[in-house]
Amino acid sequence: MRRLFNKVFRRPEKPLGILLYLTGGSHWLGGAQYARNLILALNMLSPKKCPPVFLRVSRKRDVTGLEALARGSEIVSVDRPVAKWTTQGAPTSGWLSDGCTVAFPEKGGNAATHPMAIHWIPDFQYKHYPEFFTEEERRQRDAGYEKLLQSCRFLVLSSKAARKDFHAFFPKYRHLAVEVLSFHAILEEADLAPDPRVVLEHLNLPDRFLYCANQMWQHKGHDVLFDALAQLNSQGLEIPLVCTGSLEDYRTSEFGQAMLAKITALNLEQQIRFLGVIPRRDQIQVYRRASLLVQPSRFEGWSTTVEEARTLRKTIVLSDIATHQEQAPPQGFFFRCGDPDSLAGVLGEKWREILATTPGEIDAAELLHDNTKRGRFFAQEFLAVCQKAHAIACS
Questions:
Q1: What pTM was computed for the model?
Q2: Cβ proximity of 79 and 114 under 8 Å
Q3: Which among 114, 77, 115, 113 has a CA at the least distance from the CA of 96?
């Protein structure tokens, strides 16, 4: 009986160590920001209460300064190749992270993956909106996920909606260990140090404006937003719109141009400002001074814009897709997804309320206090997921 007890309840043979991979890049800023949010959250923990964490980053894809962030961290170390020796004393090579028991996020299905990779599928947009993808890309994703799932021992998804999709689209893998890890938008203290009015003056933005932080991808709903603004114009209500993010969708070179043509056709050129991809700290000041946020997306795995609205205590008008309803921001107001009439109705109501109030800002100290609580919660959720994967690795 004692031997059985020891076998079932023995301590893991190795302590938990975590290897983080960079995900995303200039082609997908949301993925890169995911990694940044996670590092910032881990930094809010006591080093004594956090296992070793190593970041493996490609400088060519490091668009949000992850390496510099890790170098200033007490929690996260930058991974690198090192000289080592075999047990026979022969020279060899390896990585600082070679002792790590889990790796996250693994998105591929290659045989060379980490022995205990925590696989991550951001979302299943290509299943819901196949028209936004070529037949070849859909086939590649199906084949890639099939290969990933065949070798997968532990899968992370970003929402309960994504977990429901996974079970619907890949039912033969329902036996897999699946965890939902929803990310949070995390700030640095320096993010709130600038005077946002100075930044907005530099960007030549009005005192009151509606802000959309989406890259101009086909599913992000800019077309619905532009139609809603035109409808409000016909009612005598003109709402200035500021947009950040790339104007290019990697899947098509035509969509961005079509949207610019739509703006011209609707006579919205003087009403909309496109800032492109701006420095992260500047973007936060745009968030802070925006009168109202809008997220018209048709599909999200877990919306960064919605999380940033929560972090900065901003009012946001958003589509009623399942993920947005799951995120449920405290100052969120929903419209029917894809319906410009519904969006115009909610935007008009909220904008008229804004015109009747005096613009103000939330105290930075309050935001940072909430940010620290949210960051620690996110870090602890992440570590709990890693502990579960570690237990599987050591079983």
A1: 0.89
A2: no
A3: 77
